[in-house]
Amino acid sequence: MIMKAWLFFCLIVLCCFLLPQTCRSSIRKVAKLSLGFKGSQMQYIDNDGLFLVSNTSSFAFGFNANTDITSFTLVIIHMFSSRIIWSANRAFPVGNSANFVFGNDGNAYIESNGKVIWSTNTSGKGVSALVLLDTGNMVLVGNDGGYVWQSFSHPTNTLMPNQNFSDGMKLVSNPRNNQSFSLEIKSGDMILSAGFRNPQPYWAMGKDKRRIINKDGGSLESATIGANSWRFYDQNKVFLWQFVFAEGDDANTTWAAVLEDDGFIKFYNLPLKTAGNIEIPGDSCGTPQSCSPYLICHDGNTCQCPSGLNEISCKPNVVSCSTPKDQKTLINAGENLSYTALGFVPPSSKTSLEGCKSSCLGNCSCLVMFFDNKSGNCYMFDQIGSFIDAKNGVSFESYVKVSRTLHGKKKQSIAVVIAIVLATLFVIFSLVFIGVRWHKKKKNEPAEKHDESSEEDNFLESISGMPIRFSYTDLQKATDNFSKILGHGGFGSVYEGVMKDGTQLAVKQLEGIGQGKKEFRAEVSIIGGIHHHHLVRLKGFCAEGAHRLLVYEYMANGSLDRWIFKKNKTEFLLDWDTRYNIAVGTAKGLAYLHEDCDVKIVHCDIKPENVLLDASFRAKVSDFGLAKLMTREQSHVFTTMRGTRGYLAPEWITSYAISEKSDVYSYGMVLLEIIGGRKNYDSSMISEKSHFPSYAFKMMEEGNLEEIIDQQMKVDKKDERVSVAIQVALWCIQDDMNLRPPMTKVVQMLEGLSPVPAPPMASQSGSRLYSGLFKSISEEGTSSGMSDCNSDAYLSAVRLSGPR
């Protein structure tokens, strides 16, 4: 049994040695690494590449992935805030197979592909161990217990509490856009500089008004962060100045100073993961990178193009040394401009303004120059950041070197601007002149329609049971910008539309609204307030600006004329039952208008185009634009001619007063056309048949009813409705309006509720007289063309029809 256990133990040990390193679980070292240590990011991937932690685990040391994830940097990191406080190779990142080696000779270095990327250069100096302290300082301890090397003496961009920052050390920001910033102690002061080819200082602690002076006159040698302040000492450790960057004085709080890539020093409370409110410099425009080069930085970090460069380019191209001297010039950048480096860099010379300009033009490295009018100091810069807006005014003159070609373009652009301004002024004065003339002309015109829009709105609002008022935009969307046309009418076109809820609509867009205003009002006021199975329902309207639209229920089968006036035999033919139901439905709709409404409504334009059919071929009367209202006490009324040729009753022609019997006549013509499947006048037929009403009377007299019926339609000879329909039609088209039956009587006769006597034949002398009239006008248009009599309701020769 003991032998088996021993063999099992040996097997486990052997497997551990044979497994690849990357497959083994890594264990972080605590506080100390011994000589001979070697570790890579891949080996410690399960520990995020970190192989050493301090005693309290506040800090860790190892490889950290950069933003691109594929490259790595050897760092010391504050574990709680995840803030990197030191890095070895930030300028030379390595892959995940690179190793950190702490050699037996005491040298610590990064090895990648056989090359040393970074090293402490401590070989042979008696190093015995590498220790990570709880302060964040990593030290190489010598055999005597002293520090041979420490990370605090080689800072990157961060300073920690109790880290001594002394003359000769340098803090450098992470680069951004190939630009970095540095902090160092030199010449008895702590200075921030921009990393141009020739570094440009832009801040010094000795000039910061926020510092607290403890002892004046000493030369600064070192600085240390303690609690909530930065303390500055001379070479004898005499306390000179103090810079307080946070409230409170908690010695246990860990504050770090970081030189950020924008050139500002910011202070971070690492345990709380918060940033302090104090920054260095204190001015938001205090660094050369506050704005792009050549732009002016204002308070709040707003950036603006200098007035002098505005006409050329806010970011002029650098004039190289190879550019001939006579092709270079200096232009004034603008008034009250300053620069962060002024006051920190020594002047290039002491001269006059012209001497300074001459020096800059003669020095190919000079791109921008400043001249101090008070002191005569001349400052020249080979690179420039952003200008500063000098709020209180300064004595500096600022000039930028540009090529003469670019400067010439400026003059040309000024000329162009002047020309544009003059042209604009001319246009403005012209418009003002035209406006004044137009205003005077309008004042002299008689006031006609000042309140027309509001008057119409008041009219529409006063309608009882007014239908929905749509906006023009709603109807434009519903009709897909009026793209699918259903038909044309005398006052406009009809389009198919679909509302958001899927409801189909027919939208009639009135055109020539000046002459159609009365018709629009009539349509809205009449049909908007009545509802009947055989009347087309007006769902809404639009009266917006010059737009006038009527919104009807959608009638799937369009108008009656397309079903009874067939051009060829292959088209679908309405059967007799459907035709008869259409005739009855139309009669019921008219009877309702004449008898059952509050006021008697005379339609005035009954024709097949104004009888619409729904999906079930139910007939509905439409288009009330020409309708006339009559009180119950009125039996006749005089009005201007309106309607369509071929359907006009004789009283229209003879200027006799009209009544609802005029609609009866028009209905009789439509009924006759339903029966015969042809128009009431057809010039293509022989003379005897061309005028259908006259021919129908003749066939009725001869008892030859089959000649009146549509020859393509099959009709049962025993169906009495044929004879009834023909006789009703002939009663309706009597010349004498007193002989025509009312529409209620027509409905009763068609439904078999009232007998139908034989219609008088002699009454058609007038109708026969019209036959010659229709023949004479047939060459100008069809019998369904509109009446062209002069009146205030004059209608165009185009047929007025409702929604198709």
From TrEMBL:
Residues 1-25 form the signal peptide. SMART domains: B_lectin, S_TKc. Its EC number is 2.7.11.1. It catalyses: L-seryl-[protein] + ATP = O-phospho-L-seryl-[protein] + ADP + H(+); L-threonyl-[protein] + ATP = O-phospho-L-threonyl-[protein] + ADP + H(+). It is a single-pass type I membrane protein. GO terms for cellular component: membrane. The keyword Protein transport does not apply. InterPro entries: Bulb-type_lectin_dom, Bulb-type_lectin_dom_sf, G-type_lectin_kinases/EP1-like, Kinase-like_dom_sf, Prot_kinase_dom, Protein_kinase_ATP_BS, Ser/Thr_kinase_AS, SRK-like_kinase. Residues 480-753 form the Protein kinase domain. It comes from the Eukaryota. It is found in: Membrane. This is Receptor-like serine/threonine-protein kinase. The chain crosses the membrane at residues 414-436. Coiled coil: none annotated. Residues 36-153 form the Bulb-type lectin domain. Keywords: ATP-binding, Disulfide bond, EGF-like domain, Glycoprotein, Kinase, Lectin, Membrane, Nucleotide-binding, Phosphoprotein, Receptor, Serine/threonine-protein kinase, Signal, Transferase, Transmembrane, Transmembrane helix. The lineage of its organism: Eukaryota, Viridiplantae, Streptophyta, Embryophyta, Tracheophyta. It comes from Artemisia annua.
